[in-house]
Amino acid sequence: MTLAEKIGQLTVESHGPFGTRERIATGEIGNVINYANAGETTDVQAEAAKSRLGIPLLTGLDVLHGYRTLFMVPLGQAASFDPDLNRRAAEAIARETTLQGVNWTYAPMVDIGRDPRWGRVVEGAGEDPWLASRMAAARVTGYRAGGLVVTPKHFVGYGAPAAGLDYAPADMSEATLRDVYLPPFRAAVEAGAEAIMPALSALNGIPASVDGRLLTGVLRGEWGFRGFVVSDWGAIDQLGNHGIDPDRAVMARKTFAAGIDMDMASGTYRTRFAEEVAAGQVSEAAIDAAVRRVLRVKFEAGLDTRKPIPWKEAEAGMLAPATRELAVEVARRSIVMLENRRETLPIEGRRKVLLVGALADIAREHVGPHAAQYREQDVVTIRRALAERAARAGMAFDFQPGCDAFCTDERGFGAAVRAARAADVIVAVLGEPGDIAGEAASRADPNLPGRQQALLERLVATGKPVVLVIMAGRPLIVPWVAEHVSALLTTWYPGTYGSRALAEILFGDTAPSGRLPMTWPRHPGQIPISYDRLRSGRPAERDQKFTSKYVDVDWTPQFAFGHGLSTTRFAYDGLRLDRTEVGTDGRLTATVTVTNTGRRAGREVVQLYVRDVQASRVRPDRQLKGVASVDLAPGEAKPVSIPIDVADLGFHDETGTYRVEAGRFEIFVGGSSEASLSVAFTATGPDLVRPPASR
């Protein structure tokens, strides 16, 4: 290969003025982004075939939760607490995407998100490293099975920005980095991820694009990653904004030396590498190694044998019945019921239902950020789904928007209140319009926008039962709402068909089983917040002033991590372990009996948390370490067993060494992170100690 051809393989440029067909045909551009359909991808691959070597292009697109069939957003999918369901969804998404000739996705996003002010929590799996790691592995496995080259992002710490501001720097200890933020990336790599995208932000004062300790030392050295590293959009050019040398040649040199193989959309490698090689500043041997990584991914993914799919055939494969049904199933398992006073839900048996809220009738708002190639006409809106279900039940149905999506004024309140007085039950759909969720959508106070709460107050004042459905991409702060509505659910952004699942839940066809993958605070002053905070020497006590709490607001969350209700009830008893002593490298099993004590069938998501009672470092009060789901008929009881690998119960010290110390551990099992049923075991020595490079 010529040097220009090699540099081309380390370049990805976008649809438009940079990604010209001439440069693809000469080999100057070896990868593209935003060529989004079969016609476009076929055209650019044909240009690549004209080049001297005919190397196929990686054709990338942000496909996070669907291509044409939009599934519920990733944070919502994580609420299923079911990695296998997420794997199946990712595979279905990938199969639909690859029909259009797109072969590369910048997903999954595996950043831990503990600050709901940060808009991009919608793209991830929430706050818990155990759950997020399993979702990361599942999504990577599914995307790859469906034919996509996978790029987990944003390595690393992007999910912990100062003050919740997107792109802001993060600062954390080595122990926090390794215990909380790195595990999902490692899980993704071990699941076979072919590429990694570094963050646009800086961690501990080092921009991710030049952090060789992480990109080369940890990713390649400790983990043995064999794929390639691609910059985020324009990240190399933006190093000057961090205060790094603004000379583009220096930027190219530093990012490449740190471990970034491929430059996305800045043109820096393409325009600077040749002169840097000539000047002896960049080694051509190092370029060769990077090119080999890219080519290995291309050919192991079989890009050289893939045939273009005719446009009509590609279009015929969109919105396949099995894909649509799976999208509904994901929503069934991921909608979370937060409150249900006086068994307001289900609403069966009512004579007239009123739906209020403009969001319920706007197709674009249902699919959330990164909507890929969604089409408005495909979307089943909440208004349509509820109207159809009410008609089948012989129930009268009415709709009033009340206000626009942002609820900027109260002109429509009067009509909504009049209709509410004539209804038997009110379903209000309020929350975040998509414009204020996702990337570059940080919110200092993530509450109900505009005059939405005022509208809700007017509806509640009618005395009729009000069911609030929150459509949003993050936890919202809704203390008044939580105390005053009759029932409260979050449907996240349900996607193209997820509204059908909401209708099923509201009318009692399906019992909700989703669980919160992020803690919901009751006040912005609690943020960042997570259930697994480190223990304090003065833990909070209501009657003791000098303990760790607020004087102006309750220190507890509005809704805890793992919380989620059903339209039935479950009881736990008989928690036991198959052994009470086990080595630090051993395994034990916890078993509990779960009983459906209600009148309806339902699914319970059983959660197991572990507390390291005494350790050489301060440890969290509890950490999620196991999940199992059980379906139970009314009155039915079943034993549920969850295995525990003691080697997974450790922590990292400041040297990056992983330790599982012998001693006492407590196990809590229940329906959320507030589970109280407990039992203990002892891990017997010697301590398990693994230096960074060996784990």
Automatic annotation (TrEMBL):
Domain Fibronectin type III-like: 604-673
UniProt entry tagged with the keyword Chloroplast: no
Keyword Hydrolase: yes
GO biological process: carbohydrate metabolic process
UniProt KW keywords: Carbohydrate metabolism, Glycosidase, Hydrolase
Superkingdom of this protein's organism: Bacteria
Molecular function per GO: beta-glucosidase activity
SUPFAM superfamilies per the UniProt record, alphabetical: (Trans)glycosidases, Beta-D-glucan exohydrolase, C-terminal domain
Annotated family: Belongs to the glycosyl hydrolase 3 family.
Protein name according to UniProt: Beta-D-glucoside glucohydrolase
Native source species: Prosthecodimorpha staleyi
Upper taxonomic lineage: Bacteria, Pseudomonadati, Pseudomonadota, Alphaproteobacteria, Hyphomicrobiales
